[in-house]
Design brief:
Blueprint: E1 4-8, H1 12-23, E2 27-31, H2 35-44, E3 59-62, H3 65-69, E4 74-77, H4 84-91, E5 100-103, H5 116-124, E6 129-134, H6 139-143, E7 148-153, H7 157-167, E8 172-177, H8 180-203, H9 207-228, H10 238-249, H11 254-263, H12 268-274, H13 280-295, H14 300-310, H15 315-323
Parallel strand pairs: 1-2, 1-4, 2-3, 4-5, 5-6, 7-8
Antiparallel strand pairs: 6-7
């Protein structure tokens, strides 16, 4: 039985998962690079982004990563996806076959076009034990104990089951899945589609538009996943269509909200400068665009999001382009 877990990164999703483990009596340590954030949480015993999260006394905070992981064998990687390589590199000398890595970051690394488990393997080697947790889950609702279901995925079924047992509660149901590549592709690409859903909200389109977007969006995601060798069934489960639905429709979704603001004419840089949370879909849009181009996979919605974010095209024009593409079955 695991009695302590180190969270590397102090994001809202990591905070929500830590509350589940704390309620089970598991001791938690948090590492964050920003001393001011650590100091504020030590003083207030509350999360800096989610004040409803009140940390119990067994939760400790560190700015020194070696202190945060001392004597602990299970690490949860909860930093933004583009920083996972940097953090894992700090851990490299501390990880052996006895250690477990649970990844909760969703994204595809920009310069390598690798998923997060691939990045971890690239830094440490193929022998490391990796589980990815993913699925339709907003931290705000998990904290409020609203019933939620996610997926624990690993190439080794036993590892997925261990994480399943660790996190499952009466309100938080965890399924297992052996298709970690498909789970990570679904969890990453859905953020790009959610930005497009936000465009629709921002310009005033309705349910018809968003329904079509979600349906065609999962088709794009599954097409990319299949090209990479993932299983089709994965994209029609919790980490595919499930995660896509919640991210495209929720008031809690940072990616959908960013798209909505752009749809209303706001500037991307200004939106990001005012956000205290990382919007993963922005960087992932760049990765997906390059990955789909490299693999020659047709992803017109994701291409449109890329053009709006990086080439400053008009969302209305992109929708018109999508609707006027050659008719097909």
């Amino acid at each position: 039985m695991i009695d302590s877990v180190a969270f590397l990164g102090c994001g809202s999703w990591g905070a929500a998962l830590s509350t589940i483990l704390s309620q089970k009596g598991i001791k938690i340590t948090f590492w964050h690079r920003n001393p001011k954030i650590i100091e504020s949480m030590i003083k207030s015993r509350r999360h800096y982004l989610l004040p409803n999260v009140k940390f119990v006394d067994s939760v400790h905070f560190f700015t020194d990563i070696e202190q945060a992981i001392a004597g602990i064998n299970t690490f949860v990687i909860s930093v933004p996806s583009q920083h996972v390589r940097e953090v894992i590199s700090k851990l490299k000398t501390h990880i052996d076959s006895s250690k477990n890595i649970i990844n909760i970051a969703k994204g595809i690394e920009n310069h390598t076009l690798m998923t997060m488990s691939q990045v971890i393997n690239d830094v440490i080697g193929d022998s490391v034990k990796i589980v990815t947790l993913s699925g339709p889950s907003h931290a705000e609702e998990v904290i409020d104990n609203k019933p939620t279901a996610i997926v624990s995925s690993s190439n080794e079924v036993s590892l997925a089951k261990n994480a399943q047992a660790m996190f499952s509660t009466n309100n938080f149901r965890v399924y297992t899945n052996s298709d970690i590549l498909g789970v990570e592709i679904g969890g990453s690409a859905k953020n790009v589609i959610a930005i497009a859903a936000g465009f629709c909200d921002g310009v005033g389109y309705g349910d018809n538009t968003k329904s079509a977007l979600i349906t065609r969006g999962i088709n794009e995601i599954s097409r990319l996943g299949n090209k990479l060798g993932a299983k089709s069934d994965t994209f029609f489960g919790l980490t595919g269509i499930g995660d896509l639905i919640v991210t495209c429709g929720s008031k809690h979704s940072r990616n959908r909200k960013l798209g909505e603001l752009i749809g209303k004419g706001k500037n991307l840089k200004k939106i990001l400068s005012k956000s205290h949370m990382v919007v993963e879909g922005v960087e992932t849009a760049h990765s997906i665009y390059n990955l789909s181009s490299k693999l020659n996979v047709e992803m017109p919605i994701c291409d449109s999001v890329y053009r709006v974010l990086y080439e400053k095209t008009n969302p209305l024009e992109e929708v018109d382009n999508l609707m006027s593409r050659n008719l097909k079955s």
